[in-house]
User: Which sequence fits this backbone?
């Protein structure tokens, strides 16, 4: 079937659909980071969302919209973690079974959570091709409905509800920043932000070691993922056709940041704000702190995307400690 990007009215409908089930997450500020950046930052804390990530919004919206006849055949997706958990929980809440294809290197905390939400897991190699092939095999055998982690209009609409809430709470933001992996969140964010405030600047942050969205943005065509070894495990996937269209239409800039900066910023947020975020979350703030985005005298909204961290395998230790 041909798919088209959702418009803002579909994001409003998604918000009504998920509101009784999803958390309206808090927005936090930090005088420490405001002083460091000479701006005002408003952190939308999706690390406090169900399943610990914004992904619940899109998965619940998409699965709740399915005809019961489709849902009863089962739900299948592929994901490194947060979308996996979101689909597992949203499927269970709707009374459907789910099978999740996960890469072998997915964080244990995310694997365990998927199991706890009652979904079956099938592991595969950590490549997009392997994920898609494994998911397709399940679809062919069972007739299950595939919920794409990001290249899906109902998923994008659900993710757009996050920026909707942020801009309802703080309508005078000058800039809104979110990480980009597959692009579902930045797509929904861009569509929402540009509708509610056409002059707002929408920026995506991406790891230097997974810069396919940055390269695609510059070249005007979808570029391949060249490596997947970034610490930001939620941002290792390639963008899709729908999300790339949204990026081209509603994102003003994409910036990249180093692994060292991602890890240090993650540590700074833990220490200064007393909240747990995963590495992918740190990317937008890392872009500001490394001078890639100037927010001096401006109000910037950042979506903190999730807090599912493997606590037995933290990326920082004594050697990165500040003197």
Assistant:
């Amino acid at each position: 079937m041909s798919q088209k990007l959702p418009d803002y009215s579909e994001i409003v409908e998604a918000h009504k659909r998920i509101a009784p089930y999803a958390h309206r997450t808090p927005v936090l500020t930090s005088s420490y980071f405001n002083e460091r950046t000479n701006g005002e930052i408003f952190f939308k804390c999706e690390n406090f969302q169900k399943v610990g990530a914004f992904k619940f919004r899109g998965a619940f919206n998409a699965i709740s919209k399915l005809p019961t006849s489709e849902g009863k055949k089962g739900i299948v997706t592929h994901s490194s973690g947060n979308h996996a958990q979101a689909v597992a929980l949203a499927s269970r809440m709707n009374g459907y079974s789910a099978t999740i294809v996960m890469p072998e290197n997915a964080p244990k905390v995310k694997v365990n959570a998927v199991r706890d939400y009652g979904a079956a897991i099938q592991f595969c190699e950590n490549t997009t091709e392997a994920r898609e092939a494994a998911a397709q095999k399940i679809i062919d055998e069972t007739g299950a409905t595939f919920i794409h982690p990001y290249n899906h209009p109902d998923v994008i609409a659900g993710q757009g509800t996050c920026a909707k809430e942020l801009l309802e709470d703080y309508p005078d933001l000058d800039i809104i920043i979110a990480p980009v992996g597959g692009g579902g969140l930045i797509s929904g964010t861009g569509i929402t932000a540009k509708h509610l405030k056409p002059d707002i600047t929408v920026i995506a942050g991406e790891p230097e070691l997974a810069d396919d969205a940055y390269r695609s943005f510059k070249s005007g065509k979808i570029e391949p993922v060249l490596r997947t070894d970034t610490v930001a495990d939620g941002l290792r996937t390639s963008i899709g056709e729908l999300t790339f269209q949204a990026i081209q239409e509603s994102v003003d800039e994409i910036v990249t940041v180093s692994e060292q900066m991602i890890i240090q910023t993650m540590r700074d947020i833990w220490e200064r704000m007393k909240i747990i975020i995963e590495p992918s979350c740190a990317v937008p703030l890392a872009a500001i702190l490394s001078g890639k985005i100037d927010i001096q005298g401006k109000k910037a909204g950042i979506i903190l995307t999730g807090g599912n961290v493997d606590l037995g395998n933290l990326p920082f230790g004594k050697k990165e400690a500040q003197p």
User: Anything to note?
Assistant: The first helix runs from residue 8 to 18. Residues 8-53+153-320 form a domain with the Rossmann fold fold (CATH 3.40.50.1100). The CA atoms of residues 174 and 200 lie 5 Å apart.
